[in-house]
Amino acid sequence: MINKRLLIKNLLSHNDENSFYDKKQKLSLASKEGKAKFIKHVCALSNSNPDNNSYIVIGIRDEDNKVIGVDFFDDSKIQNLINAYLIHPPKIQYENIPFPGLPRYKVIGLVTILPTSEVSHLSKNIWKYPKKTVFYRRGSNSLPIVGNFKLKNSNKNIVDAIEKNASNNIELTLDGVFDFLNRHKSEYNPQYNVFKEQFVLCWAGKKEISNGNEYFSRVDIELINEQVRLFYSALDEVQIKINEHSFIIIEYIFLGLEKNETRYPLEKTIIHFKDNGKLEIIKEFLFEPPTYDINVIKHIYESSNTIVNKIEKNIPLSVTEHEDVHRLPNNYLICYLNGFLDAKEQLEKAKKYIKNLKDKTTYIKHKDVIRVLRKVKYH
């Protein structure tokens, strides 16, 4: 198994951006331009590496190579984006890698692009890139090709050497377990499980008993063998079930009007460990959104819009409105789920204001709501 943290360190230490490796400070998949640029780089790296993996490392400041990290990203549908815009799309894998020195809620994103023997090209127009465009890598640049393009490999030996040098071993595994246990306070009950005598999974979470059911908050789950964070939840609660073959997570979100909030199951994640040294992650979307009286929702929507309009115009908020800001993410999510589909855009208008609040809980909730909206959109 490849230790992904060590792999990233090797990529950053020994190679500038080149024809098998790119680095980004962040991904902006919410905009057409951001999606187009990501697809371009995936296409170019794939076409330039038909016999070996290629990589995009996310959370690195370009000018000085500083590791700054990004938020945990659990969107399993990112492959769908590639499939939607490329002919002969490569298989890609997005992983969240915890890194020394980063805050607990930050990771480095690693996109692995698996090799394919087919030339990838755009299946339709996106942003300023026309249909049928083929991209390839020239040094650190992803460029459109003019004329015919033939796959050729020149990176297999060096990429194989980098990956071999990042192979996991007993020392790295033990160091990873102790590091995980030491990073989490005792109140989060950090522990480990071994599956199939070869997978070491560490997890931690703060336990709560509600109506006879066991829930965990601030859950952190890492596959130590590969130094990959499989799950992270800043606010939401989860239930955890463990058997001989699988580690099962059921994620819940709190939704409701005013203070009448209820747990709603959002998604089930099954991490299934196989006898052949491989694992499979299966996700099942469970969410059934609550519905409310349309007149109540309309009132909440209009009140929320009034607050956002004041924020945009720098008009001071009243004491009550200032308190209501803390409920903006939750209220706009409920509005969206009940038919007010531009609620997401309204919430984004208040992002900067929410981000600058002294109490960061509202901003964390804002990011969580955006994540839920993205999942709802896909399903």
Give the helix proportion (percent range): 25-40%
**Rg:** 22 Å
Largest sheet: 8 strands, antiparallel
The rounded distance between the terminal residues' Cα atoms is: 33 Å
Write the element-wise H/E pattern from the N-terminal end onward: HEHEEEEHEEEEEEHHEEEEEEEEHHHHHH
Tertiary shape: globular
The number of helical segments is 11
Number of strands: 19
The portion of residues forming beta strands comes to: 25-35%
Helices and strands: which structural class? Answer: alpha+beta
Low-confidence stretches: none
The averaged pLDDT comes out at 93
Short description:
With 379 residues, the chain is of the alpha+beta class.
Protein described:
- There is one protein chain.
- The protein is an alpha+beta fold and 379 residues long.
- The protein is built from eleven helices and 19 strands.
- Strands 12, 13, 14, 15, 16, 17, 18 and 19 form an eight-stranded antiparallel sheet that branches.
- Strand 16 and strand 17 form a beta hairpin.
- Helix 8 packs parallel to helix 11.
- The longest helix is centred in the last third of the chain and has 19 residues.
- The protein is globular and about 65 Å long.
- It starts with a helix and ends with a helix.
- The model has no long low-confidence stretch (mean pLDDT 93).
